[in-house]
Write the structure tokens for this entry.
Amino acid sequence: MKRGWIFGLLAGVGLSAAAALYLISPSRVSPDAIHASVTQAPDLINRAWMLPVAAAFKSNVTWQSNGSRCGPASVANVFRSIGEEETTEAEVLDGTGKCWTGICVMGLTLDELAEVAKAQTTRDVSVLRDLTSEAFHEHMRRANDPGRRYIINFSRERIFGAGVGHHSPIGGYLETEDMVFVLDVNEDFKPWLIERERLFSAMDTMDGDKKRGLLLIDE
């Protein structure tokens, strides 16, 4: 019995280590696939950085520290843009009990990320899911409001053909082009623009038994 327990523990540790390694370095998307899947044309990107919300980020995104911490990195970047004190992953996670090993095992769900954000701000934090395409469009129109910040949870696979669920702030919406500016916190991707309906399709996917969606941080 004792030997079986030890073998079981070792097997569990091995599986945990393998899971941790996957989360730190999830399936990669090639630079060619990124280039072919989204828009990073300098003229459009420069225009997007001039949008009211994007401008508050001062053309700067602090990259996530590992592949599992896109959620805390997104909140930290948003907090920096609105003048909150907690502007690092560690500060955002402090006291929440989340990701205490340095790894957010299986990543954070949208609801868990909302809990993290609520613990560090007095602003209103809302989870928006089960949105229709029309409701998403309306929120994107409001994404240029300086008093609002959106973080989107979406499936990379739907856009890039590979990858897993991901969180990143939305920097704004180019309405004439009908494109959303995603401030990707992964340094391999960097900020990009995408057609609104394609981004909605990537968000309108399941994460466990719930839909992905938006996190709204509002004054």
Notes: Residues 42 and 54 are 15 Å apart (CA to CA).
